[in-house]
Structures are given as C-alpha cells and as structure tokens.
Amino acid sequence: MQTSSPLNTRVAALEEKMEALCLSVTDMRQSIDGLILSMTNHQASMDSAQLGLSFRVAELEEVRGICNTVASAQTANATQLKEVRGMCNALLASVQALNEEPLSLEEKTKKKARENGALDAAIVRTMKSHKEMTHRQLVLEVMQQVADLFIPDQKCVKRRIENLINRDYLERDKDNFSIYKYLA
Predict the structure, then answer these.
(1) What is the reported pLDDT for 166?
(2) CB neighbour list of residue 124: distance below 8 Å, 6 or more residues apart
(3) pLDDT tens for residues 147-179?
(4) Given 60, 108, 120, 180, which is the most exposed site by the fewest CB atoms within 10 A?
C-alpha cells in the first residue's frame, strides 16, 4: 500500500495542474469573447473599417502569441488550446480582410500563387527535416511556419499536400494512410 501512496500524490498533483490549466484556458476564452464583443461593437459604429482595425490586429496578434506560448508549454489540454488558437486566427483573418482593399482578379491570382509557393516550400522543408510525419503534425507545423506571412486554411494546406503527392515530392504510407513520407 505504501508504494501506491506516492503515485496517488503525484496523480493528485497532476490533476490539480490540469484543473488550473483548464481555468486559465477558460479565462483566455472569456477574454477573447470580450474582444469579439468589443470588436463587433466598434465595427458597427465605425464609418471606415480602417480607422481602428490596425489597433485590433495588434491586440489579436498579442492574444494569438499568448495562445501559442500556452500551447507550447502545456500539451495536456491541446484540444481546448487548439480551439482558442483557431478562434484567434479566425478573428485576425477577418480583421485583416477588413483592413485590405479589394484586389483585382490579377492581384488575387498573384497573391494565391505566392501563398501556394510559401505553403509548398514549408511542407517540403518540414518533410525534408522529419522524413515522416502524420497529417495532423504536418498541418500544424506548416501553419505555424507561414503564420507570419498569412493565415492559411487547413483545407488549403491539405490541397497543397495532395498537390505535392501528385508531383512526387511526398507519398502516403502504405499501412497508415494518415502518415506522409518525404521522397528525395
């Protein structure tokens, strides 16, 4: 019975840490909800979307940075942190979209080509260093690498992976369909 006592103590300590992490994630969610409400109120009252949005972008980038820091420090609650990070990225993308002027068809095509090139480069670079990765790991790593350039959609990353498979840069594992392998 004495051998299980230190184990029970350790389990209890881990449960307390997990509960504290859940509370901090809940606090972060409430802060983000407050930002969303504040942003919605400001957006409705603004004449021009560009007046205060650059300030909101900075706030949201700071929140996203905090989410990334917490996510890297605490992997136990990855699902909740992923949800919070997704909310931050979606908010930032919507604010950036409001800040941008409408693009012509030619400009949109060029922008899409630049983004596709950046995604392809990040995927190949990541796979070259890891040789083999699961789909989820690859998508998360690629999204983190290009986050400074733009905020990609997961579907877009998946399309670029499929494109690289078709161009023989990557292949799927024959036993596990969710694992990719780099082809030299």
Answers:
(1) 94
(2) 164, 169, 182
(3) 888 888 889 999 999 999 999 999 999 999 899
(4) 108
Given this model, what pLDDT does residue 129 score? 94
- Report CA torsion sign: 99, 63, 58, 108: negative
CA 9-13-19 angle, 5° bins: 145
Point out the residues of the chain with pLDDT beneath 70: 1-8, 10-14, 22-23, 38-59, 65-101, 184
What distances in angstroms separate CA 9 from CA 4, 18, 24, 105, one per listed residue? 9, 14, 23, 63
pLDDT for res 108:
84
- Residue at a domain's end among 71, 101, 131: 101
**Domain limits at 18?**
1-101
28/96 same-domain check: yes
Tokens, residue 133:
């990765």
Give residue for tokens 């596990």. Answer: 176
* One domain for residues 81 and 108: no
